[in-house]
Amino acid sequence: MQLDHSKGASPLYYQIKDILKKSIENEEYLKGDTLPSELELQEMFNVSRITVRQAINDLANEGYVSRTRGKGTTVIFNKIEEPLTRIMSFTEEMRIRGLEVSTKFAKINIVESNKIIAKNLNILEGQEVYKIERLRYVNGQPMVFFITYLSKNLNLPLAEDEYTGSLYELLVKTNNISISKVREYFEAVSTDERLSEYLEVELGSPALKRTRISFDSNGNNLEYSVCYYRADKYRYMVEME
Predict the structure, then answer these.
(1) What radius of gyration do the chain's Cα atoms show?
(2) Range of the domain at 162
(3) How many whole angstroms separate alpha carbon 73 and alpha carbon 56?
(4) In tens digits, what is the pLDDT along the chain, a chain of 241 residues?
(5) What separation, in Å, do the N-terminal and C-terminal C-alpha atoms of the chain show?
């Protein structure tokens, strides 16, 4: 494989890390597979052992591989796959998989609804709504940025630390109301400066945009959320018969 040795190019170890990282994300190497040895990678890229080792160390630090003496370098990365079969909060979905969920930050404000927000919450344009922004991590890695709008009739708390866990659990706790139906849309987008910073990816990286409109048991519009997932770490699965 040819590396870019030109002036101004990324360091060689970084280029190697990036090549191996993309191979893992594209499932050329699956979880449990062993990467080529350091010697094989040296010959493959025509670089020094130190360069290869630095690339592998970076992959290990980012959670893609694990190094074990006598066993080599094993792939541990696996995209989080969410089946679209039932209504579930992000927190609950991660708990089921035994993954640690944390919230980097949570913000709540009261804003006036624009035309799009009003349409999706079935309210009049200009009515006040809650706007909740949250950056969620999984196993210490940024995974998804949520922007959620909820009707001000819900009378939600304005303390930001109330929004570090499951929003759906909070709705049950504060309003005794739960989600009974959702309508969702998925599309591919490129990250802007803000998303790139939040998700810790390069500007213009692919992200999975998920738009959710939720309804309560009476069919009332309850939630309008726009969520941006790291496309290199998250995907959805649909199974039909």
Answers:
(1) 22
(2) 80-237
(3) 8
(4) 678 888 888 888 888 888 888 887 777 888 788 888 888 899 889 999 999 899 888 888 777 788 877 778 888 766 655 555 566 666 666 666 667 788 899 999 999 999 999 999 999 999 999 999 999 998 888 889 999 999 998 989 999 999 998 888 899 899 998 888 889 888 999 999 999 999 998 899 889 898 999 998 888 999 999 999 988 877 666 665 6
(5) 43
Measuring CA to CA, which residue among 156, 144, 145, 151 is closest to residue 213? 151
Final residue in a domain of this structure, among 75, 104, 129: 75
- Residue 232's domain is classified under what CATH number? 3.40.1410.10
pTM for the structure as a whole: 0.66
Indicate the residue type of 144. V
Amino acid at 44: M
Residue at 30 is within a domain: yes
- CA–CA dist 183, 100 (Å, integer): 27
> Does the residue 5 lie in any domain?
no
Asked if residue 140 belongs to a domain, the reply is yes
Report residue 204 as tokens. Answer: 């213009």
Same domain, 54 and 97: no
DSSP 182-226: EEEEEEEEE--HHHHHHHT--TT-EEEEEEEEEE-TTS-EEEEEE
The residues, ordered by sequence, that sit 6+ positions from 189 with a Cβ below 8 Å of its Cβ are 206, 207, 208, 209, 228
